[in-house]
Write a structure and sequence with these properties.
Number of helices: 4
Radius of gyration: 44 Å
CATH superfamily of the largest domain: Efflux pump adaptor protein, beta barrel domain
Structural class: alpha+beta
Number of strands: 21
CATH class of the largest domain: Mainly Beta
Largest sheet: 9 strands, antiparallel
Strand content: 35-45%
Helix content: 10-25%
């Protein structure tokens, strides 16, 4: 029994000493990665803003006097001509005001004519030295005052007639009735909108720009307006740029081309170009920890991964502007760089491709 144990121990010792020693393990194979070259982004930033198409010529029509809407002669969506009567206001004080002003004018004319005749008569008496000149001067002063009173009465009559004419609401331009705010019989306060009128032959889009964007706005791009429903693009030109008030954005208005197949109310996007610093662009997938204090991209150099710290700037399409020790055409890893160590060997997939 003891001999068998000794033989087993000897065989085990012989097996342990049979091979050469292996002090180093085989190195791991290179990590497969995909790369894309860094590109140069132009010194321009393209930003998209939402907007709604509207008519360039539009108005909310209202009466200057208060009263009741006696008649409305148009309906929503109806096409009207310039100067067409759209609605009639009833105000009991308007017609009596014209009558009273007319009577005041007639009274002032009668008094002026009477004093004119008195002036001529007293003038003849003064020439014959039958009365003193002072009496003639008094009548002349009364005649001049009566003439001034007549002018005032005529002005009040013109005002009363204008107010009566304003009781009829007329279209200031040709267009289409887009909205109705009051129905016949409703009380209409002075300045309260009665209906909206718009001319859809000319269209525009208004967008709102932050203050820092308004200062760097460039000329509009070619066909910058995109309809959200089907993605079709249309041409437009910038016609107005306002100033941003404290706490408010700046309005920008773009007039659409005449051949734009859009209607008021269409939802659109407007792409505008702004001046921006030039920089190196990398695919967004190449950026590790974006939005943090330590953003990085992994560059391939001499077959090994090299971590490069960068500051991430603006986004432009699928690219992000980065600032750091990175040059145009540097290959950056876009896939396979998760948990990749600095200096670790890598193997390029599709090495012949550059995009």
């Amino acid at each position: 029994m003891n001999g068998l144990v000794a033989l087993s121990i000897a065989l085990l010792a012989t097996g342990c000493d049979s091979g050469p020693p292996n002090d180093e393990a085989d190195p791991p194979p290179p990590r497969p990665v995909r790369v894309e070259p860094a590109i140069e982004l132009p010194a321009v930033d393209i930003v998209r803003f939402p907007g709604v198409v509207r008519a360039t010529e539009r108005a909310s029509l209202a009466f200057l006097q208060s009263g009741y809407l006696a008649e409305r002669r148009v309906e929503r969506g109806e096409r009207v001509a310039a100067g067409q009567l759209l609605a009639v206001l009833h105000n009991p004080a308007l017609q009596p005001g014209v009558a009273a002003a007319s009577a005041a004018v007639a009274e002032a004319e009668t008094r002026r004519d009477q004093l004119e005749r008195d002036t001529e008569r007293l003038g003849r008496l003064v020439e014959r030295e039958l009365i003193a000149p002072d009496e003639l001067e008094q009548v002349r002063a009364q005649r001049d005052a009566a003439a001034a009173a007549l002018d005032q009465a005529r002005a009040r009559l013109d005002e009363a007639v204008a107010q009566l004419e304003e009781a009829g609401l007329r279209a200031p331009f040709a267009g289409r009735v887009s909205e109705l705010h009051l129905e016949p019989g409703d009380f209409a306060a002075a300045g309260q909108p009665v209906l909206d009128l718009a001319d859809a032959d000319a269209l525009e889009v208004e967008i709102r720009l932050p203050a820092h964007r308004a200062a760097t706005l460039r000329d509009p791009l070619d066909r910058p307006v995109r309809r959200i429903d089907d993605g079709r693009r249309f041409g437009a030109r910038l016609t107005g740029l306002g100033q941003a008030a404290p706490g408010r954005t700046a309005p920008a208005v773009l007039a659409l081309d005449a051949d734009a197949e859009l209607v008021p109310g269409d939802a659109v996007d407007v792409e505008l170009a702004f001046a921006a610093p030039a920089g190196v662009g990398v695919p967004l997938a190449a950026v590790l920890n974006p939005g943090t204090r330590v953003s990085r991209v992994v560059r391939v150099r001499d077959g090994r991964a090299e971590h490069v710290a960068v500051d991430v700037g603006r986004l432009q399409g699928r690219y992000a502007t980065v600032f750091g020790d990175l040059a145009v055409d540097d290959p950056v890893i876009v896939s396979g760089h998760a948990q990749l160590l600095d200096g670790e060997p890598v193997r390029l997939l599709d090495a012949g491709r550059t995009e």
